[in-house]
Write a structure and sequence with these properties.
It contains 10 helices and no strands. The mean pLDDT is 90. α2 packs across α5. Helices cover 68% and strands 0% of the residues. The longest helix is centred in the N-terminal third of the chain and has 41 residues.
Length: 285
């Protein structure tokens, strides 16, 4: 049995989801910052071992240790200075010790996570869809910002996300299992085909393998019927933002732009409003 207050006061569930979303958003900031560095350390250690020159043991570095600190002065961040959104506002966006500006990225990620978590709770209520949508959304946020920073979509997130989507849909949470399995395969093969067609035509690689895996994960969660919408939305959003960057931000045409964030945004749109968009589209024809 779920606690009675969730049934009697739906707003209570939304508030709890917002608070949890803010806390998870704070943790996602750690994942976004540290996971790529953790993987880089792992790759260097593996390369050194294969070369027969193992690296000396390094200080432990993972999602928990060492404690977060100011990159400028090295001051450890106290727990009361790490309250999502609140601490940033109280500190006026600066380090408590050296007053070095703190990137606005941190409160932005926390705010997005909190708002989306609250919306999910309002939309799905207390159900398996609530927990599934939260996992999907938080993973999309982490992947989008990691790709923005590093042009890399870690397998340690995309692959578990794919399997989690299939597991949730064994009970037809978002789509039936057959559609989810086909969606996972079709999602991977769709971008894999584009990748090789572009490479054969130009001799260049237009995207990374992480994009294939991300679309496969989206297909596993939402089913194959959502894939055309996700691909269309991500392409349109990517084209608009790419043109805007070139025109207004003087972004060099030859400089690559990560595709993962557009896939993540399109996946979230499809999760929340995909059925309505597809229905309206079919009604037009």
């Amino acid at each position: 049995m779920f606690p009675v207050p969730f049934y009697q006061h739906p707003l209570f569930l939304v508030v709890v989801a917002v608070v949890v979303g803010l806390l998870v958003g704070s943790f996602l900031n750690v994942v976004i910052h540290r996971l790529p560095k953790m993987l880089e350390r792992q790759w260097r250690a593996e390369c050194a071992e294969l070369a027969g020159t193992p690296l000396a043991p390094a200080e432990k570095y993972d999602l928990v240790a060492p404690r977060s600190a100011c990159p400028k002065c090295g001051n450890r961040i106290a727990a009361f200075h790490n309250i999502p959104l609140v601490s940033y506002l109280i500190l006026l966006g600066r380090c408590a010790k050296c007053r070095e500006p703190i990137s606005p990225r941190y409160p932005v990620v926390e705010a997005i996570s909190g708002v989306l978590s609250g919306y999910i709770a309002w939309r799905y209520g207390l159900s398996s869809a609530l927990f599934g949508a939260l996992i999907f959304t938080w993973a999309m946020l982490a992947l989008a910002f990691i790709d923005l920073d590093t042009f890399y979509l870690p397998d340690s997130i995309t692959l578990p996300l794919l399997w989690a989507g299939l597991l949730f849909n064994t009970g037809a949470t978002f789509t039936d299992l057959r559609s989810a399995v086909i969606g996972a395969a079709a999602g991977y093969l769709a971008l894999w085909s584009v990748f090789w067609a572009y490479k054969l035509a130009t001799g260049k690689e237009g995207m990374g393998y992480g994009d294939f895996k991300l679309l496969a994960a989206i297909g596993a969660w939402l089913g194959w019927k959502m894939l055309p919408l996700v691909i269309l939305l991500s392409s349109v959003v990517g084209a608009v933002i790419g043109i805007a960057l070139i025109v207004f931000a003087k972004h060099a045409r030859e400089k690559p732009i990560p595709f993962g964030p557009y896939l993540a945004v399109a996946g979230l749109i499809a999760l929340f409003w995909g059925e309505q968009i597809n229905r309206r589209y079919l009604e037009l024809f």
